[in-house]
Amino acid sequence: MSGIMHIAICDDEQVSLNQLTGEVADWAKAEQEVCRTENYTTADAFLFAWEEKKDIDVLLLDIEMPGMDGIALARKLRRMGERISIIFVTGNPDFALEGYELEAVSYLVKPLKREKLWAALDRAKEQMRCRPAILAPLSAGEVEKVYVSDICCLESDGHDSVIWKRDGTKILCKTGLSQLEQELTECECQDAFFKPHRSYDINLGYVERIGKKEIRMENKMLVPVARGKWETLNQAYMRYFRKQSF
After folding, report:
1. Domain boundaries, the chain
2. pTM above 0.70, yes or no
3. Where does 4-129 sit in CATH, by number?
4. pLDDT tens digits for 15-27?
């Protein structure tokens, strides 16, 4: 798989953090993957970092920690619509059912067995490969693959268009907005988007605030709301979050 795989480890025990960090490094070397690993000792610390950049692909998550526990963190992420791959690594087998209800890749019980962790990381990698994506035509005939979960907003720019990503960066596309919207439909992701204005199509999962004249997105972008669109926008927003709730 091309690109960097971002893996976070959240565990309040330093021994476990060290072991998991080492296992991830060994797995990445064996699989010839490029991985970046970040460690957190509390769920709150992870959540604070996540809300700032949201760039983690896989989360290795303990359950029993001070403050917010791992199940509560996973539930919060899912209610936010986040599809991050979660692998529970815990000393308590009692939460396995809840873990799988939260669409965990795997639920591993300590003491950790290397073969089970590596198998879980393999599944997480495959899950990433299957994430919905669209192809963005660039200049000079080049094409870039963009994961739908990274798209905050699509904007029309004359005969071209712009993909605004959740981290605030943008991709200039040599195709119209309608073509990108067609790709969203083909990968069955259009229900997560709404068109509040003829020049914009927004990802409802990244809306921060809805006003009658404009929408504030999580990347701080302001998107205009066309006349007569406010009520249907609110209805679409509520439907989306009811669908995401557990």
Report:
1. 4-129, 133-244
2. no
3. 3.40.50.2300
4. 999 999 999 999 9
